[in-house]
Amino acid sequence: MRVCAREATTLFAVRDRLRALGCDVHARALEDAGITLMKRATILGGGMVGQAIAMDLVKSSFSVTVVDRSEEVLEAIARRWNAKTQRGDLLDAQALVDRTRDADVVVGALPGALGFRTLSAMIEAKKSYVDISFMAEDPWVLSDRAKELGVAC
User: Fold this and answer.
1) What H or E segment, with its residue span, contains residue 108?
2) Which of 1, 22, 99, 115 has a CB 3.0–4.6 Å from the CB of 135, allowing a cystine?
3) In a 3-state reduction of DSSP, which class is residue 56?
4) 39, 63 in Cβ contact below 8 A?
């Protein structure tokens, strides 16, 4: 089971408190229960929407990385938010896969023209993906493939 950052913060606190009380067996039980804490998010696109998403995720205790092609945009994000930045070609599917390799969840804040292609690449990379773009293509045609690969999109 995967849990969001807010739930993760509570689980971390419970686990740490159990350890402090000498209850390592119970603390390990949380980990042994198969709970995977979602805490690393990569945002594709550092425009106004991508920056707002970064701000919200940082405030929710996520470790955030923003990928954009513009060095200026990335410098502003690094100064303003506690987020890592990576320069990347958002048109190159393999570059996107490489930039999102360590993420628990990927957020697409890209122009609609890039939405479908990016969604397809993230599904094939088996990445949980949230997309906010308005794409001309029907994203539901990728639903069966996402289910087949066990990907949440």
Assistant:
1) strand 105-108
2) 115
3) helix
4) yes
